[in-house]
Amino acid sequence: MTLEAEVWNDITPIPQDDGPDPLAPIAYDTEYTKAMDYFRAISQKDERSERALELTEKIIEYNPAHYTIWHYRQQILFSLNKNLYEELEFVKDQIDNNPKNYQLWHHRQVLVEKLKDASRELPFINEILNDDAKNYHAWTYRQWVIRTFNLWDDELDFVNKLLDKDVRNNSAWNQRYFTIFFNPTKPTDEFLAQEIDYVIEKIKMTPNNISPWNYIKGIIAKSNKDINILEGLCKEIEEQNIISPHALGCLVDIYESRARNGSTADKEEGIKICAILAEKHDTIRKKYWEYRKVILVSL
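Structure for Protein farnesyltransferase/geranylgeranyltransferase type-1 subunit alpha, as requested:
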């Protein structure tokens, strides 16, 4: 698209107004400046036309994060009754080049919401996650798709495959929690017991991986189970001479819960571990463990 074409003869461009004495004017590309000048003119008239649609595409080429342009493009697409499946292909190409651009993901969400058809979405997201399994925007969008279109059935299997591939994928652990506890079908006690066993095995594989530790604590809290069930795991790691601040921290939680019920021996053991963590094994969180020690002393 050329901005000098006759198609724009009736439009008077509106330059950007930075005021009489701008402190640090941005040196925009000449073509981008022209495109934005025309955009100000047509948006002022709320023009929704083919040429306006082409103009938004040109601006997006220069600045794919321009939220206002994407919003205006949506209005044009809907007003002209354009083929939104073709637009999905357009935005797919954009996301392939800019996979962590929030505006692109939001635009796709608007389109899918309008179409009421998510049949292409999970395969598309899988492609993106195959390139970067921790793309926050892709995961956020995936959760929206699953909740909006009730696509829960195969999600746990999908997460299993990701964790089998990389047990340290914190995004997959987060998705696992989402899949189990945000699903309208609530997990049974039997399922949760199996899930705890599953996570324990993953922790044994990588005892210094914080993600499954956080996950299993979340399950225990959500299902009102007793954190004491993790004592055996923590002791097993300790007996293997593996220094895991996460296992030691879990023992602090366990001993504190018992100390609150009057166990002096567990209170002293918890204080001892807090000191070890603060001075030796988790010094970056020294202040935190000193705080936990103060709590134990006060019990």
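The CA atoms of residues 19 and 25 lie 10 Å apart.
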